[in-house]
Amino acid sequence: MPQSHTVASFDEELQYLVRRIAEMGGVAERIVADSVAALVNGDTDMAQRVIAEDAELDRAEREIDERAVVVIAKRQPMASDLREIIGSIRIASDLERVGDLGKNIGKRVIAVQAMTQPKKLVRGLEHLSELALTQLKEVLDAYSSRSHEVADAIRERDEEIDAIYTSLFRELLTYMMEDPRNITACTHLLFCAKNIERIGDHATNIAETVYYMATGSQLPAERPKEDETHSVGATSL
Amino acid sequence: MPQSHTVASFDEELQYLVRRIAEMGGVAERIVADSVAALVNGDTDMAQRVIAEDAELDRAEREIDERAVVVIAKRQPMASDLREIIGSIRIASDLERVGDLGKNIGKRVIAVQAMTQPKKLVRGLEHLSELALTQLKEVLDAYSSRSHEVADAIRERDEEIDAIYTSLFRELLTYMMEDPRNITACTHLLFCAKNIERIGDHATNIAETVYYMATGSQLPAERPKEDETHSVGATSL
User: What number does CATH give the domain A7-228?
Assistant: First the structure.
């Protein structure tokens, strides 16, 4: 590794990680936005592009991991710099997973195409993904500015995503019951909605990591990252 | 470098992390086994215990994270010791997520209870969870023995889990189509099966981390952690 042993160069190494995370964030946002667009428009070409693009995130995560470990071993950073580097590893892992979830939506486009999607459903999915994308964007901004207040707020807003997801879940069950020919497509849409809800959870994870990077302590574990659909149908069937 | 004060005590700190990971592994295995048992037996009391038990994994992950960072900052470990500690953070994160997935199965027990589950389905779910648990157990053994060969084999065997999951997916769709009254319960069972499939993915992640800890390099990214159900219904509906 050709870095020279100056303090400036250590900062450069940290800045490199920050830049790579920001790039990963941009790719992850695009994958999520495009996969949902492909889904609601039945655009299989776009779905193929999304699926291919995900490999970029896998590569980036590995590279960030390797770099982070090299930087720790070589520089032996203390306290806040160490948190910065450990945080990069965690955020890269969340963004890689966001890409996986987007790719999985892309892969379901063909199966869902066979169904005429009711407008209400499409709007619900779009709304869900807009919220998840806003979360992702804001949490990446919080990462850039190291703002732990924003991170805190984002975590709480995740509940809105869960509520919309639960209502979509009920709606999809209704469509299946109304017409069994919808079952296969609706099942894929259920998993797409679940994927978007999970993307919101990963944004929350990133918010927690940003808080940890900024403050050195962890947010209390009060907010469970858990959808509430398990209670749907628990009492009546 | 302040590593000189008692090498033994640094070893103790590493051993502490190893022990805590092993404990987490034991709890995660129990949560998965019990949640599936609660599901197939409709045992809501057991489901409640599983849900409560998951909090232990959340606490353990936070503690391991905090400890790991303190150890790195204080000891400034090089190469293999650093990999060991970074690996602990990653494995704790996977095990925490395994617990979440088990807890989510537990939460669906009540909703699924309303349905008389066909024997074939129950056997399929049990078989899937046995495979996932075997993966988990073997990967934790590989972690204890730092065997990268075992880790490598486990990663490849994950494909069997995916195949069984896909066949369960098809079967559940069939039950829904045969009788729309099964739709709600079958949907919850679909998510349970998906959760078990994801548990297999986390075992694979751990295998990759063990390989990294043992060798210092990463397994090539050839094996996608991806279920193949997206193609179900893609051509016929």
Answer: 1.20.58.220
